[in-house]
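Title: Comparing notes on inverse folding

I've been comparing how different people in this forum approach sequence design from structure. To keep things fair, I'm posting one structure and asking everyone to reply with a full sequence. Here's the target:
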């Protein structure tokens, strides 16, 4: 079992522990704001399971029906996570609305807040691990899971601070207001996550800084060629796809042209991790006198 699978399983385990703690905090206090936190934790567990399934499928080798691999399935996991986050936010808004109409003081606030704080610390540590390792392992599903947990941590922190004021001020309605704010924050994070994941499904190009670096590598390492044009790039999970046309002198042998392509592939793969490169070689009469000039 590789590192990505282990982290995905760890998310299920951590999510379950955090949910139990947060539900316990809600159970002893009756707080709607803590209920919203517990409800989001259920979503954490569900999305952790979805992320685990996604990384398992994405790790499967290419086959006849999927010659480019199964890497995009991780984006589907992230989109599902975004949808579930939005559903949770709407459910919390409903509870917050009815709670605001009939406010009541929460029970055992300090005990409940202490339990919720412990859950928040666990979530904070695990979200940092997921984001840090997910980026290193180039796993959109793990990074999305980590960002979701980070949002949970921030909203939990706001809830804790706000609920401390309830017994001091006697403002019972503050509990419902906090739950509503948590729901809005969750709603925004869910939309942002879906937007980013849909970008991956739509084959967005590499970021401008990375694209500039790819162009520089081609220009420096294509000695013997004339130019490169029609450069296209896209992401699919942890894989990066790069393809372009390489113009060489018409009299150049196939062997020499192939050697240039091999040199370009080595240079690009050394700089861009998990890159799959396709180079279409063309004779000099196909030059467009645009694109990447060979240095």
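Reply #1:
Here's my take.
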């Amino acid at each position: 079992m590789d590192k990505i699978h282990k982290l995905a399983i760890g998310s299920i385990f951590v999510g379950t522990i955090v949910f139990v703690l947060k539900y316990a905090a809600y159970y002893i206090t009756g707080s709607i704001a803590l209920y919203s936190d517990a409800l989001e934790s259920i979503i954490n567990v569900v999305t952790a399971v979805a992320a685990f399934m996604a990384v398992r499928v994405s790790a499967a080798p290419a086959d006849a029906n999927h010659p480019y691999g199964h890497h995009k399935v991780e984006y589907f996991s992230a989109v599902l996570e975004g949808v579930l986050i939005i559903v949770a936010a709407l459910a919390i808004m409903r509870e917050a609305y009815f709670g605001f109409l009939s406010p009541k003081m929460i029970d055992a606030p300090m005990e409940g807040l202490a339990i919720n704080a412990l859950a928040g610390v666990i979530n904070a540590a695990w979200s940092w691990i997921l984001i840090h390792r997910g980026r290193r392992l180039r796993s959109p599903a793990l990074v999305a899971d980590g960002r979701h947990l980070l949002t949970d941590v921030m909203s939990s922190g706001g809830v804790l601070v706000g609920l401390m004021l309830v017994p001091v001020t006697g403002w019972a309605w503050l509990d419902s207001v906090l739950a509503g704010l948590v729901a809005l924050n969750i709603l925004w994070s869910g939309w942002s996550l879906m937007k980013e994941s849909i970008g991956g499904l739509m084959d967005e190009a590499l970021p401008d800084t990375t694209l500039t670096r790819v162009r520089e590598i081609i220009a420096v390492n294509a000695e013997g060629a004339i130019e490169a044009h029609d450069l296209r790039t896209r992401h699919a999970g942890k894989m990066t796809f790069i393809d372009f046309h390489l113009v060489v002198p018409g009299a150049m042998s196939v062997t020499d042209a192939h050697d240039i392509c091999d040199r370009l592939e080595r240079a690009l793969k050394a700089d861009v991790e998990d890159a799959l490169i396709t180079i279409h070689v063309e004779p000099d009469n196909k030059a467009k006198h645009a694109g990447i000039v060979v240095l």
